Amino acid sequence: MAFYNKIIKKSIWVFHVSASPCNNCDIEILDLITPGYDIERFGIKLVGSVRHADVLLVTGIVSHKIAPRIKQLYEQAPKPVFVVGIGTCTVGGATFKQSYNKAGASLDKIIPVNAFIPGCPPKPEAMIDGIVKLLGTLK
Amino acid sequence: MFLKYLFYLLIFPGFLFASVFGMIVGWVDRKVSARVQFRVGPPFFQNFYDIFKLWGKEVILVKNSPYFIFLIAPIIAFASVLITSTLVGTAFFFNLSIGGDLIFIIYLMMIYSVALILGASSTGNIYSSIGAGREMKLLLSDELAFILVILVPIIQAGYKIDLTQILIYQQANGMIIGSASGIIAFIVGIICLQAKMAMQPFDIAHAETEIIDGVLIEYSGTLLAFWKLSHFIMYVFLPMLLVILFWGGISFASVGSIIAGVLKYLLIVVLMILIKNTNPRIRIDTAISFFWKYASPLALVAVILAIFGV
Ligand code: SF4
Questions:
Q1: How far is B110 from chain A (nearest CA, A)?
Q2: How far is the CA of A10 from the centre of ligand 1 (A)?
Q3: What whole-number distance in Å separates Cα of residue B215 and Cα of residue B131?
Q4: pTM here?
């Protein structure tokens, strides 16, 4: 298993789940694949189908409408899969803290979360740092 | 004798060589694409990591779908691609071929597409069925042009359908690409390869940003690894096939000729990668009309020229 973990660290395919954000975090995630940051250097690739995903990047407060779908997406992903909450929204709600439409206080009340990367929105450097730290915990 | 064939199939031009070399060429593809877009690109072993990781992931079967077809399709596709690469590889490296192997190759490449269509349509996913439909239309449009392209060397070599016979003809009479019909067929051939490999502008069945990897959307884990590996192996034998058919293959007489052979192969690969990076994806109807209105008639002209010996 240790050897497999060593390899999976070098080949991370991320799937981007947009769970009612203000769309700012999504734009910052797309920044990651532009030439300026180029996360393909680390073997990180953005995939379109959740069946190919290793990491789910979730952005936004999870509203009542999207909560069942997030659970469904998590179940559809082939294991082992990691979940990373991007932005302060997933931690505490940021701008939408007092919204009537929040399904849970934070994302980890809905699906298991491996790491949070707070910031409103977090810088691409912070996201790379967060993902690298998450992979560092793999033994 | 039997051991020798097993060696061909599993080790040298077959499974081991084709997969390892295919993943390296796949890396060249990703690296050149990255450089074209002013990026750094992935590390050398990236495709090896990807395939290894996919082997260890969970395989998810779709509820209420014919599991058997879903499971068997990637294996059929992988087997047919593997046999094709062995056939082309033995002709390329050892000058060996079974009788009539060009016909066999055309059939096996069609089986790959048919397996892709079956696997994709067995899932019942909407995007997957759109992808399957597009793959079928693409097969219908590029197959005619591809067969006409292959006909040109066959006619020039005096109606021989063995790869080795075509190589022998080229050793005696110069390369087929030197003739007028040869160069036309070669150009159409590269376009057909682009469609067979599902590279831009013909990645209509996959269309990552539009129908989310279409045909492969429901595949995960080991089965996806089979699909990816088949795709990498196609990087190996399709340019090799063009080198054999039009460019006189490779000769191991001296170091210079070996380098020349490798350069021919690399030139075709880099040309395909550059076409991929400079052309956006086209619609399926544009692809069909392109192949039926322009590429196939052009290939037909090449065949007629070849019959008249030009
Ligand atoms: S964390 Fe801030 S930037 Fe990100 S989605 Fe929430 S409000 Fe928008």
A1: 26
A2: 29
A3: 5
A4: 0.87
**Residue A21 Cα to ligand 1 middle (Å):** 6
- Which among A34, A14, A37, A36 is positioned nearest to A86, based on CA atoms? A14
What are the structural domain ranges in chain A? 10-136
Q: Where are the domains of chain B?
A: 2-307
CB A59 within 8 A of CB A26: yes
Residue A116 backbone phi and psi in degrees, to 5: -115, 140
Residue with tokens 């409103």: A120
- Tens digit of pLDDT for each residue in B251-305? 777 788 888 888 888 898 988 888 988 888 888 888 899 999 998 999 999 889 8
Interface residue of B27, B33, B49 to substitute, partner A, most A CBs within 10 Å: B49
Architecture per CATH, domain A10-136, reads as: 3-Layer(aba) Sandwich (3.40)
Q: How far is A92 from A8, CA to CA, in rounded Å?
A: 30
Q: Chain A: nearest CA to B30, how far in angstroms?
A: 9
Higher-confidence position of B138 and B175: B138
